[in-house]
UniProtKB/TrEMBL annotation:
Name this protein carries in UniProt: ATP-binding cassette domain-containing protein
Pfam families noted in UniProt: ABC_tran
Gene3D superfamilies with a match to the protein in the record: P-loop containing nucleotide triphosphate hydrolases
Membrane topology term: Peripheral membrane protein
Residue ranges the record marks as coiled coil: none
Entry's Gene Ontology BP terms: response to antibiotic
GO function term, MF aspect, one: ATP binding
PANTHER family in UniProt: ABC TRANSPORTER ATP-BINDING PROTEIN
Gene Ontology CC annotation, any one: plasma membrane
Organism taxonomic ancestry: Bacteria, Bacillati, Actinomycetota, Actinomycetes, Streptosporangiales
Organism: Actinomadura rubrisoli
Compartments it resides in: Cell membrane
Length: 91
């Protein structure tokens, strides 16, 4: 069986990821690798940036620094603006 580079890479990889809101640093240098088929739970108190981290994993938010890859692809802009541009409003 031949294994390609994409098959050995993590499904989601965060490297040195930071995210701030104004002067408040929400995410401070996270390094995380999730392999295919892995189940994880992010357990922290309220306000610990769990949703911000997941948003960056999904491409809904871009990090201020560091890199996020999902299945080998780095988002270049958040998906939310594109979703608004292509959405349809039903009266």
């Amino acid at each position: 069986m031949r294994v390609t580079a994409n098959e050995t890479a993590g499904a989601v990889v965060l490297t040195g990821v930071t995210k701030s809101y104004g002067r408040a640093r929400a995410v401070d240098g996270i390094d995380l690798r999730l392999d295919r088929g892995t189940t994880v739970a992010l357990l922290r108190p309220n306000g610990a940036a769990k949703s911000t981290t997941i948003g960056m994993m999904l491409g809904l938010l871009l990090p201020d620094s560091g890199a996020v890859e999902a299945t080998g692809v780095r988002p270049v802009r958040p998906v939310r603006p594109a979703r608004r541009e292509h959405s349809v409003r039903i009266p």
